[in-house]
């Protein structure tokens, strides 16, 4: 008799357990009706957010330079990098090169554009390995660096492509680590934001990472000086919708401007600014 009771109790338990799972699934299904759906298309975020009219890939390089070597490092870069930019055999362009004023000290930042995407990047890398001048540059450069890192980036479709600017200017690079799954929402809000922030032509470029640290976004801005930066940023708060965009920017960022990813003020090296015309 006891055995029969045990079996009946066991079956009753399993039945209740199944009903609980079933109810839980129904409850989850019901709740899912009210959850905001991400774009239902089966497509990568990069295809939904990046420009379609051209296939450009960007690479951003961060070089942390020994403090006593910064001047020599800048002179070395000036002697080699513009020649690569000007050489039509290399499908790449040096968009800009900077030293950091505020943020990470004794740091150089380079931004390259590869017309033709990954095949262009591979072609440039293969050709540079055969370039004796560049290989000598890399050897000498290595003696001056403490560390270096890079990322491959795509450009947001709603930002204008970076082009040479008359100067002098200061540039601000603001980098954000997004929460996974929020890239589309970020793009939707900043497509509106760029309309607000472009009235003074301060927006230079907007990018998101493809290889390297993932879920990263970089916004590059240009200002005449620190005072104009202050005035332009304050004026944005008087425009409709800017406060909402700032709220969602913070909400969707895991680390909005963390100490390891600071907003960096980057003065463009004057020699590069003069010697790097826009390619036709």
TrEMBL record:
Transmembrane segments: none annotated. Gene3D superfamilies: 3.30.70.100. It is found in: Mitochondrion matrix. The keyword Transit peptide applies. The keyword tRNA processing does not apply. GO terms for biological process: mitophagy. It holds the Pfam family NIPSNAP. GO terms for cellular component: mitochondrial matrix. Residues 171-255 form the NIPSNAP domain. Keywords: Autophagy, Mitochondrion, Transit peptide. PANTHER family: NIPSNAP-RELATED, PROTEIN NIPSNAP HOMOLOG 2. This is Protein NipSnap homolog 2-like. It comes from Gouania willdenowi. The gene is LOC114476160.
